[in-house]
Amino acid sequence: MKRINFATAGFFAGLVLSGQAFAQALPVVAATVTKIDESAGKITLNHGPIKNLDMAGMTMVFRARDPAMLKEVKVGDKVQFTADRVNGQLTVTSIMESK
Q1: For residue 18, is pLDDT > 50?
Q2: Is residue 88 part of a domain?
Q3: What's the pTM?
Q4: What residues make up the domain containing 63?
Q5: pLDDT grade for 24, boundaries at 50, 70 and 90
Q6: Residue 71 DSSP class
Q7: Per the domain annotation, does 76 fall within a domain?
Q8: How many C-beta neighbours within 10 Å does residue 29 have?
Q9: Does residue 46 contact residue 78 with C-beta atoms inside 8 Å?
Q10: What letter does residue 49 receive in the DSSP assignment?
Q11: What number of other Cβ atoms are within 10 A of residue 36's Cβ?
Q12: Cα–Cα distance for residue pair 6/57, rounded to 1 Å
């Protein structure tokens, strides 16, 4: 009985770790910031294709996972970002100014 419990625990631990690895493997996308709404925690980006969301390049509004990240960029900045669907909403999960 204990062996089954250990095996089951190992199986679920493997699933959690593989899920974390997948989340860290989001594609980095180039974009230009066109609008920032800090009070709503949203950013508008003119971006290239986002493969993990099966999305073509376009201009659209995203929720910021952490609203503090919006203070790191300004309108007109060229940026690199990652995005995913979080709780059903398209969300910027990381963003940084391009060099």
Answers
A1: no
A2: yes
A3: 0.75
A4: 27-97
A5: low
A6: G
A7: yes
A8: 22
A9: no
A10: -
A11: 19
A12: 46
